[in-house]
Each structure stands twice: as structure tokens, then as C-alpha cells.
Design a protein that fits this description.
Strand content: under 5%
Largest sheet: none
Order of helices and strands: HHHHHHHHHHHHHHHHHHHHH
CATH class: Mainly Alpha
Structural class: mainly alpha
Number of strands: 0
Shape: elongated
Helix content: over 70%
Radius of gyration: 25 Å
Oligomer: single chain
Number of helices: 21
Length: 546
């Protein structure tokens, strides 16, 4: 669980004058604001098992349906760097309630969508609303609890953030199978309305923050508009390139060439501008710190692996093994249960063991998990798939929690807000690119395997001819007409070939991800060891749970 932009407020000396609890118990506030955090994190996972149903209902391909996931992540990444500024300028409670309202309204629009463009636009709005929830939730927790109680408060919040992705696939599967995929979004509406009512009634806007906001308005409002536009355009066109690449023949398409060039120019321009402007949206000078630079890259890698496989495993079991959405959700839920067990252990160990040691163990375990997945066959059992996924889910906390400790070594306290925003952007960007590239590689390998296997299905192949005649006789014995039995035998062989080609393509992608993990793992050597006082909220949460 990555900390968000608001966590930088932990750097100041704690005072109850900044508490969002007012006259109420801070524990009540922790529970209330965790509702929206749960809702937002749930939506990053709940749609994974429903993509096949969404694609069928809206008459689009599975690859196009993945835009439902990636557009949300990109919109989320765009707004996260701005969330601290928006909170300071418009008021923390006011911006928080606006984010909940936007998330709730856009969830309603998602649930009522009748076409893919409407659903994607609604998901973008949902991502913009969700991007303001996590940073504000953590900022309010940090300001409402003294340091001695903050770890336990983060545990309450952390349980919701861990529980949501664990329950999301199972809940999404049950709702999709029993009702309709529309309801995976519509269930957010009553939860969002409840959150709005509770926040309005119990969460306080501290007078000190009101005074600071008025002073800020008096001095004049500055917003890095060029930086915001560059990062939004850069991420947006990068999303178009990765998602449309396979469909449009990559750089053979003028659209892809324009998108790639625009993304490169905008992202490079953003970096140059942020280094030059005195008040940047994201402080790119933080990358001068070796640990932070390496940590941001590793977070992006985690995003590629975590989001890529979380979308890919349900696709495999549904397309090849014929699982229902509920059964696909159960495969991921088992891994989530393992994460619940290993997260507190990782939090405890991150305060006692150097991050490089824990991460040096986690990377090989993830590689082994992907190696196991690369050997899946069409006869794989539920238990074998769930166990392979569980190894990966159990290792992720030992990678993520100590990384949040190591990445902040050497970062000045007053710049942690910017640092956490960059890390969240890196995670979401890795997730979006990971989903897009996984689908791109999968489509390529599927074409390759199908072409190779189809070439063998021809009359000059004696094995093929013998198999066709054997199946035709079997169908004829069941009452099929002689001509029909031959067509039925050919169709049966072709269906088996397609299924085998799909399985081999999935295996190729898992193998590529395994090699990616092994190639990138030496970057751990760039991380400097250091004291453990720079622990993130995730590490503190782990200790409290332990």
C-alpha cells in the first residue's frame, strides 16, 4: 500500500488544532473516512473478473474492454499530484466531499453506460474523483492522531485498503454472475451517499486549516498549469499508444506514431519544466536521491506485475478453463488472504531488517510464481492456479513495505508530500502500461501460435486426417449425418487448437513477465542501506497489525 500525497503533513509537529475529529473521537473519524478509501480501492479490482461480460454486453473485444481498467488508473495518476494543492486551496473537507461526490456520480454513470465510450468517459471521471480520496484520507489520519497512536490508526485504514482488493474480484464475480456487470459500479452509489452524509456530519474542517487557506488566498494562488497539462497529455497519449498498439499495427499506424511522439514530447517537456519552474507540480529534483530514483522505478515494476497479472489471471481461467466470474474471483481472493497474513509480518520485519534483504527475497519468489504460471496447461486445477497466484500475493508486501522505507532515505521531511505523489503516479503508470503491454504481447503470441498450428491442420498431415476420421465416426455413432459428422469433427479439432493456442500464449506472457522481474531485480543494488526511522505509513501499519 503506497502512501499518498497528503502524508507529507506528518513532517510537522502534531497539534490537535489540525485534527479532522473536532469534538468527536478520532477513531470514529478513522472509520468514517476509511469507507470512501475502501470504495475507491475496491473499484481498482472489482472489474477485473467482469471484463469478458462487459466486452460481450457492449459488443467490443476483450482488449478494448481493458480500457475500463487502464483509463481509471491514468486519470487517477493525473489528479494525484494536484490533490494536495486542491485540498489546500479549496479546503480539505470540501475537496474530500467533492471527490466522494464525483466518484459516486461517475459510478452511477458507469452502471448506466450502454456503450464503451460512455463507460470509458465515466471511468475517467471516476478516476479523477478517486485520485483525491487516498491522499486526503491519509492526511486526515496523520493530522487527527498523535504519533503514538498513528500506527494503530493506519492499521484501521490499512485493513480497508488490503481488504478491498481481496474482496473486489470475488464480489465482482458474484454480482456479475447473479445480476449484471452494471451493478459492480452501481453498488458504489449507496456507499458514496453514506460516506457523504457521515463526512458532512462528523468530519471537521479545523479552524487552523481555514486560517491557512485564507492566508494562501490572500498571498495569491499559484498553480503549475503548464506542468499539469503536460503530464495529463503525456499520460493520456501514452495510454492511447499502449492500448491501441496491437489493434492498429503499432508504428505502422499514423495514430500510434503521433501518440508516441506526443507522449514522449509531453513527458520530456514535463520533466524539463518541473526542473526549471520555482514552484513545480512534482519536484523532479527528488530523483537526485539515488534511493528515491531506484524506488520509483521499482514501484513502477510492481505496478506492471501486480496490475498486469491481476487482470490477466481472470482472463486465463475464464477464456481457457471456462470459469465463471465468481470462480475467477475466488482465484484472486485466495491470494488476497495470503497478503493479509504477510502484510503485518512485512511491516514488522521492515523495521528490523534492511530493505534490500527483504526485497532480495521477494523478487525471486515473484519470479518463481510467474514461472509456475508459465507452465499452466489446459488441465490445470483451481488449487494449482490459486497457489501459484498466492506465492506472488504473499511476496508483494515484502517488496512494497520495505521499499517505502528505503525510498524515503535522504528525502527532507518537507518534501515527502511531493515524493509520495510521485510514487503513486509511478505505481499507477506501471499498472496502466503493464495491462496494455500484457494484452499487446498476448495478442502477438496468439497470432503466432494459431498460424503455426493451423498450418498443420491440412489433409496432407496423416495425423490430422486420422483424427478427423476418428471423430467423424464418433459423431456419426451418436446419430449425426455423414456430411455433418465431418464438419463437426473439423470444428472440434479447430476449437481444441484455439484453446491450446490461447494457453500457450498465456504461458508466453507469464514467461516474459518472469524474465522482466529477473532482469530488473539487480536495481536493488542501487538502494543504499540506512536507518529505519524513515518508515512509511505502510510499515507503521504492519507493525501495528503485528
Amino acid at each position: 500500500m503506497a502512501p499518498s500525497a497528503g502524508e507529507g503533513t506528518a513532517a510537522h509537529i502534531w497539534t490537535p488544532a489540525r485534527s479532522a475529529a473536532g469534538r468527536h473521537s478520532p477513531w470514529l473519524i478513522a472509520i468514517i473516512i476509511s469507507i470512501s478509501a475502501f470504495m475507491e480501492v475496491l473499484d481498482t479490482a472489482i472489474a477485473n473478473v467482469s471484463l469478458r461480460h462487459i466486452a460481450g454486453s457492449l459488443a467490443v473485444s476483450y482488449d478494448q474492454a481493458t480500457w475500463v481498467l487502464t483509463t481509471y488508473l491514468v486519470a487517477n495518476a493525473v489528479v494525484i499530484p494536484m490533490s494536495s494543492w486542491l485540498s489546500d486551496v479549496f479546503g480539505r473537507k470540501r475537496y474530500y466531499m467533492f471527490s466522494v461526490a464525483l466518484f459516486t456520480l461517475s459510478s452511477l454513470c458507469c452502471g448506466l453506460a450502454t456503450s464503451l465510450p460512455i463507460l470509458i468517459i465515466s471511468r475517467v471521471a471516476q478516476g479523477l474523483g478517486g485520485g483525491g480520496l487516498q491522499p486526503n484520507t491519509q492526511a486526515m489520519l496523520v493530522d487527527s492522531f498523535p504519533p503514538a497512536s498513528r500506527g494503530k490508526a493506519m492499521a484501521v485504514y490499512g485493513f480497508t485498503v488490503i481488504l478491498a482488493p481481496m474482496l473486489g474480484p470475488l464480489l465482482g464475480g458474484v454480482i456479475t454472475d447473479r445480476f449484471s456487470w452494471h451493478w459492480i459500479f452501481l453498488i458504489n452509489v449507496p456507499i458514496g451517499l453514506l460516506s457523504l452524509a457521515l463526512v458532512s456530519a462528523f468530519v471537521d474542517e479545523p479552524p487552523l486549516l481555514v486560517k491557512e487557506r485564507r492566508e494562501r488566498w490572500r498571498r495569491g494562488i499559484h498553480f503549475d498549469f503548464p506542468g499539469a497539462m503536460l503530464i495529463a497529455l503525456g499520460l493520456g497519449f501514452l495510454e492511447i499508444m499502449t492500448d491501441r498498439g496491437v489493434q492498429d499495427d503499432w508504428f505502422g499506424s499514423s495514430l500510434i506514431r503521433i501518440a508516441a511522439l506526443t507522449a514522449a514530447v509531453c513527458i520530456a517537456g514535463f520533466v524539463i519544466w518541473e526542473l526549471w519552474t520555482p514552484r513545480p507540480l512534482l519536484d523532479m529534483r527528488l530523483f537526485k536521491h539515488r534511493n528515491f530514483a531506484a524506488g520509483s522505478l521499482i514501484v513502477m515494476v510492481i505496478g506492471v506485475i501486480l496490475f498486469g497479472t491481476t487482470q490477466f489471471v481472470p482472463q486465463l481461467v475464464q477464456q481457457v478453463l471456462g470459469y465463471t466470474a465468481t470462480e475467477a474471483g475466488l482465484v484472486l481472493t485466495f491470494g488476497g488472504m495470503i497478503t493479509v497474513v504477510t502484510m503485518p509480518l512485512a511491516g514488522v520485519l521492515s523495521g528490523r531488517v534492511q530493505p534490500r534483504v527483504l526485497m532480495g527475497i521477494a523478487f525471486p519468489v515473484i519470479a518463481v510464481s510467474l514461472w509456475m504460471m508459465s507452465h499452466f496447461t489446459v488441465n490445470e486445477t483451481f488449487a494449482q492456479i490459486a497457489i501459484a497466484r498466492a506465492w506472488q500475493s504473499g511476496a508483494i508486501p515484502f517488496l512494497f513495505v520495505p521499499l517505502m522505507s528505503a525510498a524515503y532515505i535522504g528525502i527532507p521531511p518537507q518534501r515527502t508530500g511531493n515524493a509520495t505523489a510521485i510514487i503513486n503516479v509511478a505505481r499507477n503508470l506501471g499498472g496502466s502500461v503493464g495491462i496494455g503491454m500484457v494484452q499487446a504481447l498476448f495478442a502477438r503470441r496468439q497470432q503466432f501460435h494459431q498460424a503455426r498450428m493451423v498450418s498443420a491442420l491440412q489433409p496432407l498431415n496423416p495425423i490430422y486426417e486420422h483424427t478427423v476420421r476418428t471423430l467423424a465416426r464418433a459423431f456419426a455413432a451418436r446419430g449425426a449425418a455423414p456430411g455433418a459428422s465431418l464438419h463437426m469433427a473439423t470444428a472440434e479439432i479447430y476449437a481444441l487448437m484455439q484453446r491450446q493456442a490461447l494457453m500457450m500464449s498465456f504461458a508466453d506472457v507469464f514467461r516474459a513477465l518472469m524474465l522482466f522481474v529477473l532482469v530488473i531485480s539487480p536495481i536493488l543494488l542501487l538502494l543504499k542501506s540506512g536507518p529505519t526511522e524513515h518508515r512509511s505509513g505502510a510499515a507503521a501499519m504492519g507493525e501495528a497489525l503485528g
